[in-house]
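Quick review question:
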């Protein structure tokens, strides 16, 4: 049984402790993915307290301090030839005498990806070590290449992400055709069939990423001593589940491990309305949508901490921004968890309660004063008191994030977009003047008055097409009219956020934006067919009647309801990737024997992993749906990244 409250965080800490054992007196260099994993596991302070002399990202590499002779490189992505040569050049130009390279992929995996054959030798690592020694050019130099699976970032006890795999996005039918060089794009039904997708059809780059992801996930399961069952919903998830189920090291682990775990992989593309919509009353998503990203930290935001030190309008110097992640602060971690699991109103009340307690403890304010104080005024009571700020830095940064999101000039946009989405649900089947596409065309002409960006319009289109599925077809003439309106708006307004996203589709200039945008509707139509091969979860939209209005039921809600239903309905679309004779008997011969098929809810721990990203609102939806079943199964949600609506457009356009 699992007694720990935050399994993934404990795993991350254990891995970074192994890193810390190597960094004493070292100049540490890391890629952006490793840096983000560290950010959620103690941050820079963890390495400095372990004795690192300097820490910097590879992208900002500068020559080391002359007396530095020892370097540690931390890599959470595959080492291609360019990266290997780059690291060799660094150790040569910095005159290092000793270095350690920590890799996410094992030497065996590199051999498999490069040679197509898995070996037990450390041949790749040995070859790389020889290259490093040659670059350092000193007989007394030492080089070591290690395998440490640094790939997790724990946001809350219920949620973790995998920064090295943020670009892993499920294939759409059109991607299958693109992945087969030399074949016509619209060739045959078989070519477009994602359900029958085989691993041989996947582009090499994506295949390498999947294999690396599976190997990394196996390391996490090894740490949990897990005997896992793999389930999947969606074509890309099926490939991941199959790879994990048949991985030799995973098979060996299952023979000796006692802790039963289920993994349910779900393709993000099966329901994009859930992550582009604004139906979740969730402060975490609200903050993520309105505040800028923290530099090189896609899963966190940049918080302006100037108000803690200066009054508005006062002259001031530069101060590093704050953020949401403070794993060393139980108060900030608790607040972040409330941002995910509570309504916005309740989250804000929780911040005020925490601030009230701290203000009284610091003797900055009386109980009577704080009772009626606004959240912003409570934070400003700390202004200039450096000792109090230092002691409560994490709490104040999280509180400021909430304040700045609430006071943002676009703070009303999510509610306005939610009203539009509700109208789409009501009028999805309408044609003519009341059709959703006609309404979007009108929104484009009035978007600046409504405070909408072109990315908001793009998110509404994705929401609309994913909502409709293959149940309702859009009018081609209306699609063309919307594309023309978008192009005209993009070229006349100087608002470049949308053109920059779609331009890589064609490589053309602004004059061809209209054609490229119209081509994008073919991709949106593919989004609407993502669920076409499903039986049980084919539709997320229910048409209205005289008895009840039209409604949208997120796919995740449907899945979790069925998985944990006491009635135990058959899970027609969820596939169990069996790994042994006993499992085959249970899953394949259950019609002839008195056994039931394996279910994700049969184990004490279930990890629901969204391939392609997840929102905090979806995490809350999953956890709340599970709670209604009164199950004893512990549920953790994992994903490749935390999503905002703008991320979804990048994902479906740039994937593969």
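Suggested answer, residue by residue:
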């Amino acid at each position: 049984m699992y007694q720990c409250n935050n399994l993934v965080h404990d795993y991350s800490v254990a891995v970074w402790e192994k890193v810390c054992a190597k960094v004493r007196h070292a100049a540490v260099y890391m890629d952006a993915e490793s840096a983000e994993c560290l950010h959620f596991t103690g941050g820079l302070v963890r390495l400095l307290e372990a004795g690192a002399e300097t820490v910097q990202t590879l992208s900002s590499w500068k020559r080391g301090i002359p007396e530095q002779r020892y370097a540690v490189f931390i890599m959470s992505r595959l080492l291609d030839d360019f990266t290997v040569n780059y690291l060799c050049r660094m150790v040569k130009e910095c005159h290092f005498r000793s270095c350690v390279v920590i890799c996410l992929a094992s030497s065996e995996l590199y051999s498999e990806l490069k040679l197509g054959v898995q070996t037990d030798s450390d041949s790749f690592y040995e070859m790389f070590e020889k290259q490093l020694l040659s670059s350092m050019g000193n007989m007394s130099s030492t080089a070591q290449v290690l395998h440490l699976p640094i790939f997790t970032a724990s946001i809350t006890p219920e949620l973790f992400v995998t920064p090295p795999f943020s670009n892993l996005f499920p294939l759409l039918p059109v991607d299958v055709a693109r992945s087969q060089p030399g074949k016509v794009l619209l060739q045959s039904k078989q070519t477009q069939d994602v359900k029958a997708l085989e691993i041989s059809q996947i582009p090499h780059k994506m295949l390498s990423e999947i294999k690396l992801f599976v190997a990394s996930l196996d390391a996490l399961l090894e740490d949990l001593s897990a005997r896992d069952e793999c389930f999947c919903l969606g074509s890309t998830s099926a490939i991941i589940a199959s790879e994990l189920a048949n991985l030799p090291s995973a098979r060996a682990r299952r023979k000796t491990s006692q802790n039963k775990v289920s993994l349910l992989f779900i393709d993000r593309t099966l329901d994009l309305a859930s992550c582009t919509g604004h139906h979740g009353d969730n402060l975490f998503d609200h903050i993520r949508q309105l505040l800028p990203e923290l530099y090189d930290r896609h899963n966190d935001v940049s918080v302006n901490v100037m108000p803690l030190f200066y009054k508005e309008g006062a002259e001031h110097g530069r101060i590093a921004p704050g953020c949401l992640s403070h794993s060393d602060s139980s108060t900030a971690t608790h607040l972040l968890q409330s941002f995910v699991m509570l309504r916005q109103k309740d989250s804000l009340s929780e911040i005020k309660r925490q601030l009230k307690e701290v203000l009284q403890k610091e003797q900055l304010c009386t109980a009577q004063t704080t009772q009626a104080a606004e959240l912003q005024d409570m934070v400003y009571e700390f202004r200039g008191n450096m000792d109090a700020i230092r002691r409560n830095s994490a709490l104040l940064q999280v509180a400021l994030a909430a304040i700045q999101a609430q006071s943002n000039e676009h703070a009303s946009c999510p509610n306005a977009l939610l009203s539009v989405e509700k109208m789409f649900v009501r009028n999805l089947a309408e044609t003519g003047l009341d059709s959703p596409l006609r309404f979007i065309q009108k929104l484009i002409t009035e978007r600046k008055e409504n405070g909408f960006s072109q990315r908001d319009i793009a998110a509404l289109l994705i929401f609309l097409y994913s909502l409709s599925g293959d149940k309702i077809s859009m009018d081609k003439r209306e699609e063309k009219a919307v594309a023309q309106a978008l192009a005209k708006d993009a070229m006349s307004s100087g608002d470049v956020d949308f053109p920059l996203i779609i331009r890589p589709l064609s490589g053309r200039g602004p004059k061809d934006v209209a054609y490229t945008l119209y081509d994008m509707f073919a991709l949106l139509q593919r989004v609407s067919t993502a669920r076409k091969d499903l039986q049980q979860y084919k539709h997320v939209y229910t048409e209205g009647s005289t008895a009840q209005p039209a409604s949208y039921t997120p796919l995740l809600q449907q899945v979790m309801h069925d998985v944990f239903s006491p009635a135990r309905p058959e899970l027609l679309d969820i596939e169990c990737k069996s790994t042994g004779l006993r499992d085959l008997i249970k899953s394949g011969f259950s019609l002839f024997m008195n056994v039931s098929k394996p279910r994700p809810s049969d184990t004490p721990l279930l990890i629901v992993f969204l391939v392609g990203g997840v929102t905090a609102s979806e995490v809350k939806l999953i956890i709340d749906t599970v709670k209604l079943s009164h199950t004893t199964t512990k549920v953790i949600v994992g994903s490749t990244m935390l999503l905002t609506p703008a991320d979804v457009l990048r994902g479906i356009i740039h994937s593969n």
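Why it works: The radius of gyration is 26 Å. The first helix runs from residue 7 to 20.
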